[in-house]
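Contributing new records

If you add data, match the layout below exactly. Sequence lines come first and carry their own label; structure lines follow with theirs. Keep one chain per record. Anything else will be rejected by the validation script.
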Amino acid sequence: MNSPSETKRQTQLDEVFRNLVEEVSVYESLAESALNKQKAIIKNDVPALKRYSDMEQTFVKKGNSLTDNRLRLIHTSPHDKKNNSLSVFISKNGLFADREWSNLENRLNTALNTVKRLNIENAMLLKTSLGFTQNMIKMFYPKDKKMTSTYTREGKTRMAPNNVLDYGV
């Protein structure tokens, strides 16, 4: 029969494991959403971009909540960077040989690294797209203000009113 401390430890491990399964699922969904967002950026599909951005915000909020819960369950502070890793918890509890735990840790790390990479790539794509758009708008402006003048019926030169486009926006 298990002692009360062994039962308590097993209960804690079970809670952390359930939380971790959900956490991994959320971060894998976040990675999938980030990839779909990238495809929407490339296709210039603004409605899809908005939809995936909204989904990402939901996943991030849920993921942060699950991570905070995991840290609470393993009794560490979110500010204790040295001891709050999943690897430290797995090591302290002798779970390295357990394939389920190591598989979940690998999946979590893979999902988080994928999200990080896709966020960097998406930021670069958006920055490039905005730069391209600004340069295209600038092409509509003449280099010389005199080129924007018009002639009246009387043959006099009149300066055109301010341009309609504000390309600095």
